[in-house]
């Protein structure tokens, strides 16, 4: 049967018959003999490489990495359906689960099938609204600590390396929320747990994207340091698990009001009776991974735009003064929840600079979506940033305009606005269970900073580079502060 299709830069093959298009019929960007597109894909800005390929050949195409074919989709309708069909018909790229399991990590992030359902239930219960509200004092305390440090730096005229500062800040919050460990790297400097985490997170990304698992044959110096760090982290968390169990026995009232994520998991473990300590560790580690990396980078990108938009900083400050004018940070969860303009700023930052621009999924069976056949075993690299910054989906997409998220104040009423395509927290039944906690932390942090400081970029905007490790972060983001 002949299949007719339109093949242009802006319109990749569109089926004109009932026969679906397969990957063999999709276009491909220019690559190299044998290695294919590997040399370009290995770059630390691989998400931007994929964006350029979308411009070159369209929003659905294939690439080859050492002979293994992958499909790249920047089509939001296809990406949405793939996420909706998880976990039954698609799963996360199996190499992610392989690498994390090799590290001894089994949590809600990398579990699949029935194992995922069990992890999802217990994690959702541990991150329910009541518990997230209970975590508020920790976020507020560390935010106030950040104000104290940055106020001193502002008085001294110091330039702030935002990404590094935010990593310290979020690791302080995350370790205390995750398992009650008061790290306080903002004031005391490096902590042993932070030192271990700094060795672990980059290696996860390196191993997931490595074409060959060379570390299984020959251990490099970095591999040995990584192995040592994992042993120490596991030992520490398992010790904290035992201490947490003792606290639940000695203080049964904790069951109604757990102080941290670990205690909430242990309450669910006691209630369910089917959750091992290793699985508790896996989910605590997942919390560390998500909270320390993606959240810190999201705050950093928000500050990148705020430093260029003093009028937006003023609006955040006015909102903060109206809601909690007598303190440096919100003093209650209700005050934080009332920061609607700051929330819009966060949403705009997540739209234009998503820290997870790519998601990798594998088909568990043949699935037809929008006239395209994704065959069993094929892996789809979903490029989500392109759609989030396309004029078909958002009017004036390259402008940072939080007002687009507030209908009553939006000057572009009637223009394109498609929030449904935002994939920062995934989609479908595997939507990130930590969204509520992450958004609360982002809003409280930005409100605190803007209430107390004016921001100015210490470098030209174009000197701040997008770098992709486990998530996408700003390199060379330097800011000067002025206390107000």
TrEMBL record:
InterPro entries: Cyt_P450 (IPR001128), Cyt_P450_CS (IPR017972), Cyt_P450_E_grp-I (IPR002401), Cyt_P450_sf (IPR036396). GO terms for molecular function: heme binding; iron ion binding; monooxygenase activity; oxidoreductase activity, acting on paired donors, with incorporation or reduction of molecular oxygen. Heme binds at residue 432. Residues 1-27 are annotated as: Disordered. The keyword Oxidoreductase applies. Pfam families: p450. Its cofactor is heme. It comes from the Bacteria. The keyword Oxidoreductase applies. Keywords: Heme, Iron, Metal-binding, Monooxygenase, Oxidoreductase. Belongs to the cytochrome P450 family. This is Cytochrome P450. It comes from Reichenbachiella agariperforans.
